[in-house]
Each structure stands twice: as structure tokens, then as C-alpha cells.
Amino acid sequence: MGAKKKIILTILLLINIATMFLSWFGGARKIQEVRGTIVLLHPITLIAIGLFLIGLWYPFNKKVSKWICVGSITGIIAVKIYFFFFWHYMTVTGTVSIKESINLTYPEFYLGLGISTLILAISLFMKDNNQKRVNKK
């Protein structure tokens, strides 16, 4: 991975982490809200962030580095989706319902999920500038 790509992914990861300090879920703003820090403080998320940074900045083989990054950001997305479906189960509704999940989720959650998905897409599909190009004649 090129240095430019690493810097872009690191900045996006920091923005992603910053969105976790916003209110993500709740029934009423400023009264009954849950911040995204419940996801940030989850052990899987913490391990995934560490693995992402190690995979990104440690000089592994390009393929190994790519798949460590992809796997770790997938783990973060999975934890976000898990909390999307189940955060209200124990505290508010007592049921698992996609309708309740959508109704009780603030736009900040979708922003964080979108940034995570963007990081995943960049990790998967952005090609390195250092790859050899075949000249077609």
C-alpha cells in the first residue's frame, strides 16, 4: 500500500472513531439516548481497530496487509450492525424488531456505518500505484 492510501485510511478511521462519540440510538434526544461509545468500548471493536492499524502500517506482504485491514474493518461493521439490532432489546423494548431499530436510530449511526463501509471499499478495491502495469501494443 502506498503512503497516500495509508494516510487516507488512517484519517477515515479517526473520523469513524469520532462518530462513535455522537448519539446513535435513543427514544428522545438529550433525554434517552445512547452514544456510539458502546460500540467503541466493545472488545471486538478495540481489537479490530488495533489490528487495522497494525495491518495498515506494519510492513507485511501486500496481500496479508490488505486482508488484515479488510477483516478488521468487517469486524467493526459487524459490531455496529449487532448493536443496531440488539441495543434496545434489554433496555427499551424487550423485543428484537427491525422496525424499532430503524425508529430508534439517529442519522449519526448511519454516518458512522457509511464511513466504515467506505473504508472497507477502499481497502478492497483501491489499487496500489506501485503495481506493475502491462503495456498494451
From TrEMBL:
Keywords: Membrane, Transmembrane, Transmembrane helix. The chain crosses the membrane at residues 7-26, 38-60, 67-89, 109-126. This is Uncharacterized protein. It comes from the Bacteria.
